[in-house]
Specification:
The complex is a heterodimer.
Chain A lengths: L1 H28 L4 H5 L6 H11 L5 H15 L12 H36 L4 H15 L2 H15 L17 H35 L2 H8 L4 H38 L5 H10 L3 H29 L1 H12 L1
Chain B lengths: L4 E12 L2 E13 L4 E5 L6 H9 L6 E10 L2 E2 L5 H7 L4 E4 L3 H4 L6 H12 L4 H14 L5 H5 L8 H13 L5 E5 L7 H18 L2 E6 L2 H7 L2 E6 L2 E7 H6 L4 H8 L40 H5 L5 E4 L2 E3 L4 H13 L1
Parallel strand pairs in B: 3-8, 3-9, 6-7, 7-8
Antiparallel strand pairs in B: 1-2, 1-4, 4-5, 9-10, 10-12, 11-12
Helix pairs in contact in B: 4-5, 5-7, 7-8
The chains are: A mainly alpha, B alpha/beta.
Amino acid sequence: MYNYVMRRILIAIPVLFGVTVINFIIMKMAPGNPVDMLVNPKLPAAAVEAKRMELGLNAPAYEQYWNWLKNLVLHGDLGYSMITYEPVTRMIGEHLWPTLLLMGISLILGLAIAIPLGVISAVRQYSKLDYTVVTLSFLGISIPNFFLGLGLVYLFALKLDWLPTSGMTELGQGGSFKDVVLHLILPCIVLTANVTGRTIRYVRSSMLEIIGQDYLRTARAKGLKEVLVVNKHAMRNALIPIVTILGMEIPILFGGAVVIEQIFSWPGIGQLTLSSIMSRDYSTIMGLNLVAAIVVIFANLLTDIVYALVDPRIKHSYQGAARS
Amino acid sequence: MESLLAVKDLRTSFDTDQGQVVSVDRVSFELKAGETLAIVGESGSGKSVTALSIMRLLGKGSRVSDGEIRLNGVNILELDEKKMRDIRGNRISMIFQEPMTSLNPVFTIGHQLMEAIRLHLNKDKKQARAHAVEMLKKVGLPRPEQIMDEYPFALSGGMRQRVMIAMALACKPTVLIADEPTTALDVTVQAQIMRIMKDLCAEAGTAIILITHDLGVVAEMADRVLVMYAGQIVEEADVFTLFDHPQHPYTQGLLRSVPHLEADDQDELAAIPGTVPARYHKMQACRFHNRCAFATEKCRTELPPLIRTQDGHTSRCWEIEAATIHYEEGKAR
């Protein structure tokens, strides 16, 4: 297992390299550059040229990439923002944790709601409860995040004035725990609704597949309680496909953050991404892209590790692969 | 003496799109302690449903609609679910047809064995483990200690069925229901599994209900045989009587269609023509009449009752005499 994980981490290195190359090419192909976005159009050409020199934009593209990579590998340095001149590492660090907070809570809440509901829904297939759950999950999937977000803002912030519309803390109030929680509620509801809707369907169908299995009849024939048959014997098997969903959910949430953070002005990675793309802030874009790639690779690796934990057959095959 | 298990007028029905289908129709039989009763019949004749009715493990949409099942005089159909759980795996155990899928793939063999042991026998973890290892040894598995920690995927079909037998007999049940326990196994393994099952049950005094369509297995294992056709019992006799003097044309057909080693090359293997009629539960007739060479007008309009011809031999046929004479003549030839 250890060998397997190490090998996967080593394989991740060329993947990350490839991702940054492709990202760099696409970024360079996009019209405009940081200087165009930054300066006054009436500025004399010489001044613009000087700015370009200063940011190193006049060197050939491969050299620019090479410099970026060299800095990263040798010093662990992602460079400075071409707009704010802040270190990219620090900017990402500041914006990462609000996103992780939002994502983490939504993911945990989503799973905590979706797994029991999906299981009950499958056990009582075609009951009223089942139809209700399926309908709700359908709604959760179908309503676009931005729409639900705006609707909630309209209702709870504008009309009822219970919750703040945007941001992570109230300006000038220093951001107490309660303050952050109040700001978290609305964006969390939106993301949770989405996660729950998607996950319930997977849990339900995965559970339905298990419910007819012979080994559950064996468990019942032993005299086990129905609760144990479902929650232990069936659940452990249904979890295997659910783990895949979890692995896919993390990148989806990370990507979904871009939209949701924009709506609620949540000071996270999503907002930073959008603003850096708008201003063609090359070094920040590269840094953010690297982080996103790492998140995806990490989520996949996590999936495979959890797989081995829940399915002895997979663990066995990992061990077999490591030996040969 | 009251028999160990008495099934009386058992009726089990299924809800389908076409309405209710009765798949076990007024089945009655008795099982004495320690004896082996074989239930034979083709697929869909209601053998397995009878077994699942006794275990009260029928799936959704099916239920016992009538009759009683008495275990030591207590009608288990009237027990609440908790009391029924105390019986399952403890006093009545079951082995299923598919060893490959009957064990949970994500739990170790030991875990699955000990689950039943700890549920019904008052043992702590260590004692339960020792008991489980003992059971694995009894069913003839090599290195039982290691197998305790193996997952089912590491075991062959034959080994898994041995584990199932160990699991079913771990609590020394009084009745073991074996639903085609060897159908899915290699021919070479079948005999071994049967032998182990028979020996262990004899040792513990467990009675067996053996569901099968393999008449060779019946001859080998059973004391008494029940032949089912289209949800009904058509003949019941002790094993020698049934093989020597079958009365029902269906049983006769079954016996004739067993290939014999000493048969001539040019002899054609006998078969029963036709198929089981659809919607047979609605028929006011002998359910076998459309496939029967002896069918008369009476057979087409009136369902024959189970007729007792001599001690312990009953069959459901209007034309027993004609059929029997014909069969005996055929055998003499």
